[in-house]
């Protein structure tokens, strides 16, 4: 009675449809496992016993070695020195990169080298902070200066290449064009051009800028230059007196070349 009702017929149809889906999914998984295992055997050599899938049914996928490997990640250990260098008073390190060596590298190599140096700098700064916390001398602190010099020279080489490429493409040395101008205090500075929606002679904001030095400021400019020269002369005299005192106290000391 229940089977003859519309609800019972719909229930039977849904049950049959569910059984059909289970059968189709099981056959697809069986074929996929067989093809995966067969592919692994053909990639890594060896005789396959799966020539006839009906004679040797496969139920589970066998483990297969990956085709590529990734680098190991040490986590927070990357911020510390190698274990063999820990506790040492001095650590051997090479010389910093010179500009001549960096000019022979490609842009891709310079990009990789920048992150290598940055990683080394982070490690050395962490080591310096840890030594300061423990109130111990940092082993070979000159390594930080070597890394910083290498990074500064690398930036110089990259800027040189960008400038050369810009000169070839646009004929301008600076990435943003500009001009040397003076302000109302008599200082000369590099003014970078900006884009405005209206012409400069109609722009009130641009007209408020003073790119000239008034006449009553010129005496103060001369006084400022005189003050600068006096300070530089005073520093040079103090340095000479200091070296002379060291020479009298330590006669064997060599005087630096002037």
TrEMBL record:
Q: Give one GO molecular function term.
A: structural constituent of ribosome
The UniProt keywords, alphabetically, are: Mitochondrion, Ribonucleoprotein, Ribosomal protein
Q: State any GO BP term from the record.
A: mitochondrial translation
- Keyword check for tRNA processing: no
Q: What is its main location?
A: mitochondrion
What Gene3D superfamilies does UniProt report for this protein, alphabetically? 6.10.330.20
For this record, the Gene Ontology CC terms, alphabetical, are: mitochondrial large ribosomal subunit
Subcellular location field: Mitochondrion
* The keyword Ribonucleoprotein is assigned to this record: yes
Which InterPro entries did the record assign? MRP-L47_sf (IPR038340), Ribosomal_uL29_mit (IPR010729), Ribosomal_uL29_sf (IPR036049)
Family of this protein: Belongs to the universal ribosomal protein uL29 family.
**Name of the protein in question:** Large ribosomal subunit protein uL29m
Q: Which organism is it from?
A: Knipowitschia caucasica
Record lineage = Eukaryota, Metazoa, Chordata, Craniata, Vertebrata
